Amino acid sequence: MPLSDAGHGAGGRPDALRLEDVGFSYGRHGVLDGVSLCVGRGEFVALAGPNGSGKSTLVRVALGLTPPQGGEVRLFGEPPAHLRDRWRVGYVPQRAVVVDQLPATVEEVVASGCVARRGWARRPHAEDRHRVEQALDVVALTDRRRTPIVELSGGQQQRVFIARALASEPELLVLDEPIAGVDAESQTRFRDALVTRCHNDGVAVLLVSHELGAVADDLDRLVVLRGGKVVFDGPPADLTAEGVSLGVHRTDLPVWLEGPG
Amino acid sequence: MSLPLPWPFEREYMQLALVSGLAVGACAPLIGTFLVQKRLSLMGDGIGHMAFAGVAAGLLTGVSPLWTALVVAVLGAMTIEWLRLRRRASGDLALAVFFYTGIAAGVVLTGLAGSLNSGVLTYLFGAVLTVSPGDALSICVLGVCILAVVAVTWRALFSVALDEEAARVAGMPVDALSLGLAALTAVTVVAAMRVVGVLLVAALMVLPVGSAQRLARSFGATLRWAVAIGMGSVVVGLAVARAAALAPGGTIVLVAAAAFTVTAALDVGGRRAA
Q1: Total number of domains in chain B
Q2: ipTM of the complex
Q3: DSSP string spanning B184-209?
Q4: Burial class (CB in 10 A: 0-12, 13-18, 19+), B86
Q5: What is the pLDDT of residue A32?
Q6: Which of A34, A62, B113, B170 pairs as cysteine with B60 (C-beta 3.0–4.6 A)?
Q7: Residue B129 belongs to what domain range?
Q8: Of B37, B41, B162, which to mutate for an interface test with A (greatest number of A Cβ within 10 Å)?
Q9: Residue B51 confidence class, pLDDT cut points 50, 70, 90
Q10: Which of A141, A108, A128, A122 lies closest to B220, judged by CA?
Q11: Is residue B3 part of a domain?
């Protein structure tokens, strides 16, 4: 069935993100093999999989940074290249790079997330400042706003980049391994920020992560990728029924993911 | 006609040098701040060498070297950036190819023009004390253009310098902004050519920024500090050069280097590693 008929979620509005039978390979090395994945509006979906399972490639394809070699990608019902209001997609890259000498404050980095939405040559207006305030508040960094970002811990820096993605008030948030190596306090703040945006504001969230303990109870769906194929797509409880726990025994998921077949 | 300024700027030639130097002292660090952020600190150097080929072409054809250098530098800078964006070559490899091609073409063209005459040395090492009123006006016009463009685009340039990929996902015109920054770099190099010379032009794009990064606690403050240190280096450098009869271009850069050393020494807390 073509995407144009199938790409609509409940209520008739197109899903935030939809991949249909997507394939991708680097030379002879196949990375994604017939991957289909959907994130509806207000849905909190996690994507897990062992190292080398194709998670990062899938994110790049989903965001339109890399064109798929087969299948179709739709962001809000449009091919990524045709989506006009790109600010509707927020992206937190894997290990966002902070140059050691980056002389920028927390507030400057977060405010840079508003530039695309208001138009790159325009000056910020009151509405932008309000969005920055809100984003800082969500990640609980309002009191550090004037601190140079290099003076923050790794977890706090990651929260800054989440705030930057939130500052354009996106309708789809894609986060690539955002909580790897992050301290417990930042993990809790991070979870609260995502759950608020998702369940209160209807933002669709695709979280790519190995460590799902912090958000295990909040997920609507979990998608597991292994060897470039989707091997599980459903409520986390269904995976729990197979004896794999995301919440209590947090080591279960990585062990299960890395395990044979 | 000279203005009633105190020593060492009481003579007209020193005033022309001051005006040209201040325009360059403001623009070079301003553009340099974005280049340093993008880890393209040597971009100014590579473009300087291409500008040299442009100068030689101007001397050969009898066209004003400032304008031939501008055309060659802007085209070369945009080509380097295009190659980097398309991932056809890594940033430093693309730079190196153009760096050497530029200087080789410059040498060959200068040979064709007759000899390594004094006109070439003027652009290689700078000759700010012989700047004509027309040159000073051209440099100031280029400087005002650069300041105006940066005033409008600095937030967008910052967002791209911070994270090119995230900016691309958000729908920023990353390619256009990167090519625009490369073109601005080329314009700055050409404006600075008569002041410090193509061999030292990159120093004014990088050294004041290095100092500013140690003094400032925000990106906005880094831009302001870098411009202040760049302009201050020009004033002090010209004064020292006049007093001690030194080469002004080199003296300006040595003052900027001294400022960097002092700020590095003052950065006692080691807030930022070098």
Answers
A1: 1
A2: 0.90
A3: HHHHHHHHHHHHH-TTTHHHHHHHHH
A4: exposed
A5: 95
A6: B113
A7: 15-202
A8: B162
A9: very high
A10: A108
A11: no
What CATH number is attached to the domain comprising B189?
A: 1.10.3470.10
Least confident of A252-261, B86-95, B250-259: A252-261
Specify if B136 maps to a domain. yes
Considering the domain delimited by A3-258, tell me its CATH architecture: 3-Layer(aba) Sandwich (3.40)
pLDDT at position A2, please?
44
- Distance from the A101 Cα atom to the nearest Cα atom in chain B, whole angstroms: 6
Q: Which two tokens stand for residue B26?
A: 């403001």
Residue B51 lies in a domain: yes
In this prediction the pTM is 0.89
Residue-wise DSSP of B45-76: HHHHHHHHHHHHHHHHHTS-HHHHHHHHHHHH
Q: Does B108 touch chain A (CB under 8 A)?
A: no
Q: Is residue B81 part of a domain?
A: yes
Q: How far is A124 from chain B (nearest CA, A)?
A: 9
pLDDT value for A159: 87
pLDDT, tens digit, for every residue of B207-235? 999 999 999 999 999 999 999 999 999 99
